[in-house]
Amino acid sequence: MRVRDRPLPADGTMRGPRFGRSFRGGAAQASLGQLRRGDSIEVAWPPSWTCLAAVARSRGLPAKPSEPGLAAVTLLHSLGSIDEVGWLLHPPLIDLLYRLGERSGMSWWKKRWTHTHKQLRALGVDNVDNAVLEQAARDLGRDDPAIAPAGEGRDLAFAEFRTALGGDAEAASRWVQWAERRHLLVRGAPVECTAGGARSWLPMGALPPPVVCAGCGREIDQPFPPSGLSFTYRLGEPLRRVLETDSLGHLLAVRWFTELFGNRKLSARSSISMSRLRACWVVQAPSGLVVVPRM
Ligand SMILES: [Zn+2]
Hints:
binds zinc ion; four-stranded antiparallel β-sheet; single chain; 13% strand; extended; 10 helices
């Protein structure tokens, strides 16, 4: 028995009695000897993760979910379907999202580091091995993730999205609404304390007065300007985690594989790559998709 769109790897570990039934050559096998007419038989189809773990185990390797993988799956849940990843396939938009997630002052920090490095050289640290300096840079956190922790990223106005989408206000409006609905973006507004001047950013849910200042803890009298409230956007947590773990590429690749192995007609360019990729299985499960090398 085979299930369309739910392929199984032809793998030794999958054949064992552990799953109650035998899975051989990508199909489930069940004995029908005891069955009478009209009886039904239940076969539990192994989830994609079980298949992946089985293939890895046959080769003496353990398979564990990675942090970037989990982040990508969480974002995929927010998106609802792998097809939705298509909304992110626009390089200027991806750049904008990274800018949105960047720890403010990160570029300042990198520039500062380069400057210090030059100064050390000028002071005669020439005889210090380059590898030693490089190690010191890493130990001091030069390469720490540039993505800010939750709640500390930048907030950007709608106009930035319009620019990223080539100045098309309607497209930007549709994109921002799509992203907000899927928790990729959070809408809010900057607030300034009338007493101490402390600035903070509040999500929509926290905007109705009374608004409390994050700096002094007192209630802000008239927190919003009389000219109107200008919304800005911050990264939603599922997308922030994907940028932090650098796993956006995973999702773009999975979407590409899905198109490649899906029912859609392949373009000439995809067909050329197909021969190179024949060594993979794409296993789909409620928890997402995995690409498994076919042995
Ligand atoms: Zn204050």
